[in-house]
Automatic annotation (TrEMBL):
GO biological process: establishment of competence for transformation
PANTHER family named in the record: PROTEIN SXY (PTHR36121)
Annotated TfoX C-terminal domain residues: 116-194
Domain TfoX N-terminal: 14-106
Pfam families membership: TfoX_C, TfoX_N
Protein name: Crp/Fnr family transcriptional regulator
Superkingdom per UniProt: Bacteria
InterPro entries membership: TfoX-like, TfoX-like_gammaprotbact, TfoX_C, TfoX_N
Length: 204
């Protein structure tokens, strides 16, 4: 398995060389890939996983990727990294674009890390919502902001498929620092239309 992972690392360095010098180190039983000491991807069991961010939300909705999971104290823990499948490997231009999104988001998070705060202090953040976010691996404000409301909502929906658009309003408001009721009507409508677009229309 280690041989497969090294082969994947070298292939990633070749395909993504335009991002800069890609280095790797052992992490979580796999390997982290970094540019300028900033982690943007992981290699585990011979597969490449890109760090999820708001810009990659649409890709994740369309392709329903496999998420990187590791076992901690006997329980599975899902990380914010999605698998690069064979189809994406064959589309190098899209792979580079998504990888750049991951790197840019990681760099922004790194730059704002000093401003991290607990989720509890944000608007709309109930105990139940904070618990759901923690279960999804979103444990602080910087991660919430890095992923964006849509990606966070998608990850929460994997835990609770019955999640409503009201939670999306709450997440959007939390990031914007306002109560969900104060979200502009135009933005609320955009979010409603986005959620509606995720459900395919029935074919008769």
């Amino acid at each position: 398995m280690k041989k497969l992972s090294y082969a994947r690392i070298y292939k990633s360095q070749e395909y993504l060389e335009s991002l800069g010098t890609i280095r790797y180190r052992s992490l979580f039983g796999g390997y982290s890939l970094t540019v300028e000491d900033t982690v943007f991807a992981m290699v585990a069991s011979g597969e490449l996983y890109l760090r999820a961010c708001e810009q990659s939300a649409q890709y994740c909705v369309k392709h329903s990727p496999v998420w990187l999971t590791f076992i901690k104290r006997g329980r599975p823990v899902v990380l914010n990294y999605y698998q690069v499948n064979d189809t994406l490997w064959q589309n190098q231009q899209q792979l580079v674009s998504l990888s750049r999104y991951s790197l840019d988001a990681a760099l922004k998070e790194k730059q704002s890390r000093f401003a991290q705060h607990r989720l509890r202090g944000l608007p709309n953040m109930t105990f139940h919502l904070e618990t759901l976010l923690n279960e999804a691996g979103i444990k602080d404000e910087s991660t919430l902001r890095m992923l964006g409301a849509k990606m966070c909502w998608l990850k929460l929906r994997q835990i609770n498929p019955a999640l409503t658009v009201k939670i999306l309003y709450a997440l959007e408001g939390a990031i914007g620092g306002i109560h969900e009721a104060a979200l502009p009507a135009i933005r609320r409508q955009e979010l409603v239309e986005w959620v509606s677009s995720l459900t395919p229309e029935p074919v008769y």
